[in-house]
Amino acid sequence: MSISEKSLPCSPSSSSSSLSSMSVQEFDPLLKDLNEKKQSFRRNVVSLASELKEARNRLASQEQSFVKETLTRQEAQMKAKNLEEEIGRLQKRLEHRNEKLRLQHLPLKRSHSHPSS
């Protein structure tokens, strides 16, 4: 290059010509390395996206299981409460019948214990 060419601002055509004068072999390893890193980055992004999707699916499944478990527990608690109430009603009916039978047998006991003459 002459001195006058060096003093001129570098235009795209002149910079490409100066780049073309550099050996392609000098850039090739750098471009190859950059391309490999880019491909590796893309694979990592795809892998991370896949892992994220799987994690979201597991979370959704766990949430569904939790909801199902909660509903099952609530149903079991409701059934237990209803059974307790039914047992209470049956116990009161039994006590009432026992008292009724006791009162019915009381006159019979008196008549057997006091023979009439």
UniProtKB/TrEMBL annotation:
Start-end of Low complexity biased regions: 1-23
Chain residue ranges for the region called Disordered: 1-25, 98-117
The protein's name: Spindle assembly abnormal protein 6 homolog
Coiled coil ranges: none
PANTHER family: NUCLEAR ENVELOPE-ASSOCIATED PROTEIN 1, NUCLEAR ENVELOPE-ASSOCIATED PROTEIN 2
Ranges of compositional bias, category Basic residues: 107-117
Provenance organism: Prunus yedoensis var. nudiflora
InterPro entries in UniProt: NEAP1-4
UniProt lineage: Eukaryota, Viridiplantae, Streptophyta, Embryophyta, Tracheophyta
